[in-house]
Every structure is written in C-alpha cells, then in structure tokens.
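R.M. (postdoc): so does anyone remember the format we settled on? I'll just put the structure tokens first.
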C-alpha cells in the first residue's frame, strides 16, 4: 500500500488520488461511506457495531479512511473530568466521490457539502439521539436470532417513502425482521422544542399518508416524558377519527427507553388506553420477510459467508489470514 495513503492525511482530493484509493477500497469501506452519507454522523462505537468484529480493527481501518479523506472526524466538547470523547465520524470529500460512484451520480449531483461546524451545529444533539436510538435497537436485537434491523433509512430516504403530496420528513425509518414478518417503522424523535400544533400537523400528515401508501407502517414517537406524551395525546384528540388505521401511532418516553430498552414493553398505542407493547408485537407491513441473519450488525462478522472476499479489493485471503483492514 502506498505510504502516501497509509501514513499521512491527504491534502486536496485529486483524480489521481481517487484512482489510487480505488485500488485499496473494500465493499465494507463503500458501505461505511454510504452509511455516513445517509446518517450524517456516527461514532466510533456505532461504526464498530455496524461494520466490524472488534474495536482494534475498527480503529485501524477508520484511521486509514480518515487519512485517505474518505472520512472526517471531530470530538465534541465534554467536561474535563469525563475524559476525551470518542470520535464522531463524517463523510469527507473522497468519500463523497465514492458515494456518488456507488449511486451512479456525478459528484456535483450528490447534494452533499463538507461542514466545518458539526461540533457546534444546532442539530447535532438531535441527530446523535436519533442515531443512538437506532444503533441501540440494532445492538439489542443481536442476541435474538429471530429479530434484526433489516434496513435503516435516514431522514432523506424516509422522506422518499412518503406518498405524493405528503410533505413529511421523518427523523428515520427502519425495517425490523420479526417472527411475524417485516415491521416498517417511521421514527419521530421529539425533544419538546416545538409547540403541540406542530405535533398535530405531523399527525394529520401521517393520516393523509396512511390513506395513500398501500403499505402499513408504524409511526414511533419518542418523547422526553409523560407531560409531552399528554401533549401528543391532546394533538391526536384534535385530529380525531380522521386518522387512518394503516399507519398506527405509538409513543414511548425517554425514561422508559432507558429503563427497558427499545425492545421492552414501552410502545403505547396513541389514543388507546391499553397496555404498552413490545416492538415485535406491533403490526407488520406487507413487505416480503427478510432473513434476520442478514440484519445490520451481523452482515460484517468474520463468520459470515463471503466475508473475506468482500473485505479484499483484490480477492479473498486465505481462511484465518490476518484482517489488517
């Protein structure tokens, strides 16, 4: 491998450097770049969960991608007594070219630009909380062979799932493999920074989408506490019986999420007075069932068939060969 790539951070991203880099990229590297394009920011531990079997190899490969300008990183401020925070990873310029190539787009069509201010960006906390919810859910499914997060959409991709004429931008979307089938969920992570009228508008838009989609999705609201949950209940009461049944709404509070986890019995049907449900008990979509063995967090384990071939740019290493990547 060229020392100019492996030992120093690259400067300007040129066509020659992109050509050289392409000879060293693996399928996993491309998926990492696509994930950061989709979800904006992921921490070291989240990338390890999604793409690696261990932290040491994760750090080695992420450092290579950082030096190659595929990824950038920053360390958000935190109190001195808590020590240095883990790195937060972003897409960088070479990564944007990789993503564009994967999507069959010209780089200028990608709709991405490099940001210098993510450490102080006003949406940072919200984005991190949304991503933490989904990655915690992925981690929670790993001990359960019949459960798994099959797909994870960022807000842009979740918006694309909306029927024509429905101006909604969910915070995320997930497809969850369960014993009953594939569960589709759209996530609204509510930090109580908007008035109840905004919640009401969202519910009316979800009602509109429900009648046009042709598929079933569960809308998950996570709110800071019971007071905000009551505000959401009041908003639903104003929407009334016009809300469609195809996209049922469930609400959980952050304290419940912390105590029981995303798979716990915390999902209260909005507008109904009955016991909260576990996630796998929510009504499934009409989508074709997925294989939980292919779920996120399982796809890049060393014991997966085809792992070594996908990990090598030039071919499959011999079994047991050191994963220097």
């Amino acid at each position: 491998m060229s020392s100019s790539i492996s030992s120093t951070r690259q400067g300007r991203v040129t066509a020659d450097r992109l050509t050289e880099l392409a000879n060293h990229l693996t399928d996993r590297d491309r998926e990492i770049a696509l994930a950061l394009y989709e979800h904006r920011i992921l921490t070291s531990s989240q990338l390890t969960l999604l793409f690696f079997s261990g932290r040491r190899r994760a750090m080695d490969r992420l450092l290579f991608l950082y030096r190659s300008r595929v990824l950038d990183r920053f360390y958000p401020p935190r109190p001195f007594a808590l020590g240095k925070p883990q790195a937060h990873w972003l897409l960088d310029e070479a990564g944007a070219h990789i993503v564009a190539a994967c999507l069959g787009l010209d780089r200028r069509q990608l709709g991405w630009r490099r940001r210098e201010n993510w450490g102080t960006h006003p949406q940072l906390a919200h984005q991190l909380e949304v991503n933490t919810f989904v990655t915690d859910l992925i981690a929670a499914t790993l001990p359960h062979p019949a459960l798994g997060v099959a797909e994870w959409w960022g807000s842009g991709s979740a918006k694309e799932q909306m029927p024509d004429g429905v101006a909604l931008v969910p915070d995320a979307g997930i497809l969850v493999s369960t014993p009953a089938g594939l569960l589709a969920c759209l996530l609204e992570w509510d930090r109580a920074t908007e008035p109840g009228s905004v919640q009401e508008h969202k519910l009316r838009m979800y009602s509109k989408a429900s009648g046009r989609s042709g598929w079933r999705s569960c809308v998950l609201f996570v709110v800071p506490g019971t007071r905000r949950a009551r505000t959401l209940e009041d908003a639903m009461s104003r929407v009334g019986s016009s809300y469609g049944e195809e996209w049922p709404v469930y609400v959980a509070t952050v304290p419940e999420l912390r105590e029981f986890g995303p798979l716990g019995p915390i999902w209260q049907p909005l507008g109904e007075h009955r016991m909260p449900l576990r996630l796998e008990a929510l009504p499934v979509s009409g989508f074709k069932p997925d294989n939980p063995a292919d779920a996120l967090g399982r796809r890049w384990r060393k014991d997966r068939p085809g792992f070594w071939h996908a990990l090598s740019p030039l071919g499959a290493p011999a079994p047991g060969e050191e994963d220097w990547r």
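R.M.: ...and that's the designed sequence above, right after the tokens. Also worth knowing: The chain has two domains: 3-121, 124-281. Residues 315-325 have pLDDT under 50 and may be disordered.
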